[in-house]
Amino acid sequence: xxxxIIILLLTLAxxxxxxxxxxxxxxxxxWKLQQIEMNETGSVIVTRxxxxxxxxxxELIQIGEGKGRFQHVGDSLFVQLITMPNSPKNFGIxxxxxxxxxxxxxxxxxxxxxxxxxxxxxxxx
Length: 125
Fold this sequence. Notes:
By secondary structure, this protein is mostly beta strands. Helix content is 14%, strand content 46%.
């Protein structure tokens, strides 16, 4: 019995140590889009009562039903979607193959991103 418990504990330790660690810091996790501000006109679309989510994990990003890759370099976030949601603009994506956002604010509670077209405000969910 004691030998079985030791083998089980060693197996669990091996499994845990093999998992890839998310190194995204405050960016990692589930983000709820609160509003989309159009840079050119200043008009605001409030989305806080809608289910518009971005999910960031490891090197992958999920925007609505769309999936892709991202790079967070300095104060920039580059997003390249491989599969796209039905309406990427509803999630603040105007250039799905090569979108660049400036990171205006990022902490464990909120994030503000700005592209050429829009400024997006998020709340950590």
